[in-house]
Amino acid sequence: MQKWPKKRTQYPLIALVFFVFIVFSILYNESNIQEIHSKHTLPRTPPVPLDKSSACQSTVKYSGKRAEWDSFKPEITGRREMPETCDYFSGEWVFDNSSYPLYKDSDCPYMSDQLACHKHGRQDLDYQYWRWQPHHCNLKRWNVTEMWEKLRGKRLMFVGDSLNRGQWISMVCLLQSVIPAEKKFMTPQAHLSIFRAEEYNASIEFLWAPLLVESNSDDPVDHRLPERILRPDSLLRHSSEWMHADILVFNSYLWWRQGPVKLLWSSEEKGVCEEIDGLGGMELAMEAWAKWVDSNVDRVKKVFFVTMSPTHFTKQEWEPGSEGNCYDEKLPIKNGTYWGIDSDFPTMQMVERILAKLGSKVNVLNITQLSEYRKDGHPSIYRKFWETLTPEKLADPASYSDCIHWCLPGVPDVWNELLFQFL
């Protein structure tokens, strides 16, 4: 009987074809998904960094746009302005020529010519001898060794404008004398300057960031520009430097007092800027900074915010009926309720609102009113001026007085004594 051969099944071949089809479909769909994802989530091109050559192609009114980070939740523990029960920021200036100054300007090799008032001709030295005395308690007495121990193995970084640079120089001058010459180093690196004490493995640093966020004024020297342009949604240029510090001391105020600023958002491709008043611009920058603090500061890192440093451009404010400014002023203001017009209350309220959201993540050095009393503490004409002064100005000293910055030794040393108190 003839046997017919069994018919070979087609199932293995069909299964193989089906398997190849499934694999191809998965790979194809994955490729499409990745392409769609990249189109919608990755920036087309990174924004061009801002510098002194940056310009707006056109300018429109501020649209009300906010960065994504302005909705973070307040911390319920409340803001930590004073770790102890005493209000160290309420008090009076007491003349004390036995304990002060805490150093001599001539003994500090890192002193700035902008702040070295005695070197540049100021003969009345009483401004160096005033001690801040809180009403109901005493500040801890300054101790260089104890401060270095607090900084051992740490980076203390001041971030902000020239007023914060003055506080940094003050801190360096307060601390440098006990470090042997061969074990201390000063390294100016573009917008970041570093004083390092080798035996403590510690550094005291200053980062130039006058507007906190990225701007066209981030060059520490060449920043006198006709208009300020900033990216209110970008602070990576600065935060990439400050994020590695252990103790951060921020300030921001003065640069927002010079008229409107221009906003150039990172997503804007055609160079269209929005114009906003200084207070509004500062609020956007403070929101960006506060979001960074909220997201990045842990329990180990300490963050301080220094409130506005007052100016003394109008003598009539503390001496009604008179003319002039801080030039030739030799005594502090004794009126405990004095406030100058340049200490802007709307700005203070805005800063207070934002700091309140951060709760205990930020410590506030409230130096505004205690510095208000020190109309005598500014360089006035006793500093190095980088521009050539005209004969007309030289004939009228008050016309070129610096009533913004502070002589050293002087007021910023007290700001650092307060910092020492709270560390």
From TrEMBL:
This is Protein trichome birefringence-like 35. It comes from the Eukaryota. It is found in: Membrane. Residues 84-138 form the Trichome birefringence-like N-terminal domain. It comes from Nicotiana sylvestris. InterPro entries: TBL (IPR029962), TBL_C (IPR026057), TBL_N (IPR025846). Belongs to the PC-esterase family. TBL subfamily. Residues 140-421 form the Trichome birefringence-like C-terminal domain. PANTHER family: PROTEIN TRICHOME BIREFRINGENCE-LIKE 35 (PTHR32285:SF202), PROTEIN TRICHOME BIREFRINGENCE-LIKE 9-RELATED (PTHR32285). One of its GO terms (molecular function) is O-acetyltransferase activity. Keywords: Membrane, Signal-anchor, Transmembrane, Transmembrane helix. GO terms for cellular component: Golgi apparatus; membrane. Pfam families: PC-Esterase, PMR5N. It is a single-pass membrane protein. The chain crosses the membrane at residues 12-28. Its main location: membrane.
